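Intended use. Records like the one below are meant for learning the mapping from a protein sequence to its folded structure. Do not use them to infer anything beyond what is encoded.
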Amino acid sequence: MSDSHELHLQHHYRDMEQQHDAAKLGIWLFLATEILLFGGLFCGYAVFRANHEDLFVWGEQFLDERYGAANTAVLLISSLTMAMAITYVQQEKKRAALVTLGITFV
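Structure written out for the chain above:
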């Protein structure tokens, strides 16, 4: 697959190497913050579940597996149609892209 844009040096970098290094550092910082965020959320969940197991047992009676399955199906199908729309845009198939975007938003 060929890119339709050329890489160019942004005005605030000395050279392409510095720009590339800054981009790599940015990605690593983003990943580190995501690990900290979700690590904290999972730890909080584990502590709460360990300390209040009775609440989780009580709450399970209100859950319906069909709603969870339907939600999962909607998320998977919308991800698929969004990926298809991106592919159609890259192939310059405007009508197909609009149709799949419409399906995604429904």
